[in-house]
Every structure is written in structure tokens, then in C-alpha cells.
Design brief:
Blueprint lengths: L7 E5 L6 H9 L5 E6 L15 H9 L4 H22 L3 E5 L1 H5 L9 H8 L4 E7 L2 H10 L10 H17 L3 E4 H6 L1 H12 L7 H4 L26 H9 L1 H10 L18
Parallel strand pairs: 1-3, 1-4, 2-3, 4-5
């Protein structure tokens, strides 16, 4: 393969966990080519306007894209993207569509994007963000995106624990969304340092101009930790009875009680 001299930066998070606003802020740092919701092995199910993308249309219409074909297609795209990146002297940042790896029926407990990049021989620098599991799962239910796990909070916690284990195994830097909301400049500075991107001191103004797919969350440009929305009684009861949920909260420094402030202690990003 052609040698790409700059590592590919990757950003990972579950749906409804604040990842879009974090991604927009990363996108205004370092003059990168920031591409959103990338997963070479995600299923293509929708017929949509895609005049440059013949193979996505092929899969959506005829279901003929095998894993081998998808990897070959992704490799071809990455080679061209890397060449453009090198010529422009702009780094590549890929926002992973982590949801389609972990939450689709028959999914896997790894980032298919990151694994594909490793197979293709690209060096990577990677970060991930998480949100309190009750808040993220409640938002997933509201958006009707938890069907792949039978709307089960226990399964969600299993997926989240697997994600944390994967990030640790792959040395993916991990930050909490709540810390970003409380200290956006400090947290983004840490993320940029991990990604070897220059920090943009004007990110709070500049990120508002970034358009990304998957923008399902906040509409306000003001970054702050919002008051928790009311949690449905059945979800609160399921959380109270879940040993795994309490383990996840302890691991991430979150308060398990749904009627309390979500952060129990400081979390050492790593």
C-alpha cells in the first residue's frame, strides 16, 4: 500500500451520548478532513441520493456487497483519501459509527472501522467519549434506536462494558461527556493532545458552523451540563436492580442513583 505519513485519527462513541458536539469541536481543530459516521462493514439498507457512491446503492438495492467486497472498497477509498490528505497536508479524522458495530443484530464488540484500518496497515490515534448510561439509554429509547438490543437496559450495559474493555485493549483514550460539558476547553485540549491536533482557542464559536451527519442531539450552541430529564419509573427500577449497571457506574465514576447528580467522582481520562 502507499505510505500515509500521518496517523488516521478516529473518534468513537455510542448513539445519544453527546458525541456529535464533541466531534464538531474536534473538527475545528487542526484543519483536518473530518468525515462522520464511518463504518466499512455497516449494513447499507436505505436507498438515498448518493451520486458518488455506486457500491452503497448496489448494496441497498441488491444486497450483493460481501465483507470482502466492502473491505476492498474501503481500502480503495482510504488510499485515495490518504493521497489527498498528504497533498493538502491536512490530517484525516474519522468519526466511527460505533452504534452499527455494537448494536445491530449479530453485531460485534469492537470498532469495525478501527479494526479495518489496522488490517489495511494505517497508524491510528483514537479517542472515545461516554455518557452516563441511564441518560444515554433513555435518549436511545426516545429516538427508537434500541431495537437491536430489544430495548433492554441490561443488554445496553453489557455493550457499554464491552466498549470500555475494547477501548482499554486498543489504547483508545476515554473521556466523559459530562466533563466536556463542565470544562469544555480543558477537556477538548486533552483530547486534541491525545490526537496530536492543535487546539483551537476559538472552538466555541467555530464549531457552530460545522455540519455533520448523525446530529440528533442538542440544538443550542451553549455547551453546559444540563439538568437530567425525568427517568421513566421502569428504567429507574431496572437500573436499581442491575449489578452490571452499578459496576459500569463505579468504573466510570458515575452516581448510580438516577435522582442524583450524575458525577460521583473525578474520572482519570486515559
Amino acid at each position: 500500500m502507499e505510505v500515509h505519513h500521518s496517523p488516521v485519527r478516529t473518534i468513537h462513541h455510542f448513539a445519544c451520548s453527546g458525541g456529535t458536539v464533541v466531534s464538531k469541536c474536534i473538527a475545528v481543530c487542526g484543519d483536518s478532513f473530518f468525515l462522520s459516521e464511518v463504518n466499512p462493514l455497516a449494513p447499507y439498507n436505505d436507498i438515498k441520493f448518493a451520486p458518488l457512491d455506486l457500491l452503497s446503492q448496489l448494496q441497498a438495492q441488491y444486497r450483493n456487497m460481501t465483507k470482502q467486497y466492502r473491505m476492498e472498497f474501503f481500502g480503495d477509498q482510504m488510499r485515495l483519501l490518504a493521497r489527498i490528505s498528504d497533498q493538502a497536508k491536512r490530517p484525516i479524522c474519522l468519526r466511527d459509527h460505533t452504534h452499527s458495530s455494537f448494536f445491530r443484530p449479530g453485531g460485534v464488540h469492537e470498532s469495525e472501522l478501527l479494526e479495518a484500518l489496522k488490517v489495511l496497515g494505517y497508524d491510528t490515534l483514537s479517542v472515545a467519549t461516554v455518557r452516563h448510561p441511564v441518560d444515554a439509554f433513555a435518549a436511545m429509547l426516545k429516538n427508537k434506536w434500541a431495537g437491536g438490543i430489544q430495548n433492554s437496559f441490561e443488554i445496553y450495559c453489557t455493550k457499554l462494558m464491552a466498549f470500555l474493555d475494547y477501548c482499554e485493549r486498543r489504547e483508545v483514550g476515554l473521556w466523559r461527556y459530562e466533563d466536556f460539558c463542565l470544562k469544555p476547553a480543558e477537556t477538548l485540549g486533552q483530547i486534541c493532545e491525545r490526537l496530536a491536533l492543535p487546539f483551537n482557542e476559538n472552538f466555541l464559536e467555530d464549531f457552530q458552523n460545522i455540519k455533520l451527519s448523525g446530529d440528533s442531539g442538542r440544538r443550542s450552541a451553549d455547551i453546559h451540563l444540563r439538568t437530567r430529564r425525568s427517568i421513566a419509573p421502569d428504567l429507574a427500577a431496572e437500573a436499581a436492580d442491575s449489578e452490571l449497571y452499578h459496576t459500569v457506574c463505579s468504573r466510570l465514576g458515575y452516581t448510580a442513583a438516577v435522582d442524583e447528580y450524575p458525577l460521583q467522582r473525578d474520572f482519570q481520562s486515559h
